[in-house]
Amino acid sequence: MQHRIFSILVGALLILGCLPVAAQDNNTEKPVVLYTSTPKKYEIADIRVEGADNYEDYVIINLSGLSKGQVISIPGEEISQACKRYWRHGLFSDVAITWDKVEGDKAWITIHVKMRPRVSEIRFHGVKKSEREDLEAKIGMIKGNQITPNQIDRAKTLIQRYFDDKGFKNAEVIINQKDDKNNENQVIVDIEIDKKEKVKVHKITIEGNKAITAKKLKRVMKKT
Question: What does the angle CA 199 – CA 204 – CA 208 come to, to the nearest 5 degrees?
């Protein structure tokens, strides 16, 4: 019965992704976090990191705001706040913090992160070479860097603004990612652009022009 309750708890908490969960292996029985229980104070005896192959462990630990020797409540806000910091940072697609072992008032925890993929190639579709070169400089998406949802949203906005300034008011931009089969945890970014028809002025109507003729005003507005 106890094992069944433990399995249900672990499954539910893993779905949430930013709450401390208890882990098990074949050798050691791990503690179970019951969120209906009264929080208890524990000193962090050690912190491990899993999943951040491209970063030193101390960098990932520092991002969490947790530290060895710190006293935290389990369950408590410290773990939840640590996960929120990772989400705000934007470089991780999944985060979980497990409570692996407890002895007396000391707890051992592990930070599990899944890094967002890096860009291996950027492909523009539907634009001329000169436009592509302009856009590459504007959107700031660089090969080798990690790609985040914020970067994609920002790139869409900048591309649409670029074509809006050129008179393409209805341009559509779709950005897709696909796994690069030749490079692990890297993606190829396809930027599909449909400029649509250029918006032109069909007619200009001027009202209230008593001091100057409409013809002279329209001559000044020739490039509009």
Answer: 145
